What we know:
The chain is of the alpha+beta class. It folds into 2 domains: about 30-190, Jelly Rolls (Sandwich), CATH 2.60.120; about 195-220. It has helices spanning about 5-30, 40-45, 195-220, and strands spanning about 35, 50-55, 70, 75, 85, 95-100, 105-110, 115-125, 130-135, 140-145, 155-160, 170-175, 180-190. Strands 1, 2, 5, 6, 8, 11 and 13 form a 7-stranded antiparallel beta sheet that branches. The protein has a 6-stranded antiparallel beta sheet with strand order 3-4-7-12-9-10, with no helix packed on it. Helix 1 packs antiparallel against helix 3 (about 195-220). It starts with 6 loop residues before the first helix and ends with a helix.
Amino acid sequence: MYTTTFRPFLRAFAATAFLGLTLAGTAASAADVATYADEALFDQAAPGLSTYVFPAGNGDGGFEPRPYILGPLGFSTYQHFTHPYLENDGAYGAGTYLAMIGIPGVNAAMDTQVDGIYALGFNLGTYDGADTITVTINFGQSVGTFDTSDGVGSSTFFGIVSSDPITQITFTAATGEEIDILNFKANAISAVPEPASMTLALAGLGVVGVAARRRKVSQA
Length: 220
């Protein structure tokens, strides 16, 4: 049994733990995100990535299962009766790309299939009039926009590095019918505890240590 003098320290520790959990929950509600339009800068910020290139597909009209899974990502569209499909119409040179369609507008979702994805980079093409694309992650956190209005045959890079694991990323355009994902990069790294979380944890351990020492003195 603990003594009466020990109870205040238990209450202090409980309050510290509660505060830590509350602040940690608040911090986790919105990840710190850096976005990149320059692929070289993205590669410097997130080294050690793997590049995923789409295999030969069924061509125009050959819809793929939804979600279509390649490596750590599953691709799908939010519109009914639409699916991604693999295509090579020569617009971007050799290689096959994944066309994400939606009428009206493009609304493509990429769900991560593994834990620990903190960085994603996409080489994207335009088709059928898609222009300004809005990007969100983790079911609702808006992280920015990019423009793909240069026309068929042009490509745009968009990269994102997040402080929290990425579980989902979406591209949404108000106009146009299609955006083409030429290839993408992804890496999985170990999470590093945030400084604020580490400080709160150490503070909690300090309270426990003081309480234990005072308990020994009271029992002596």
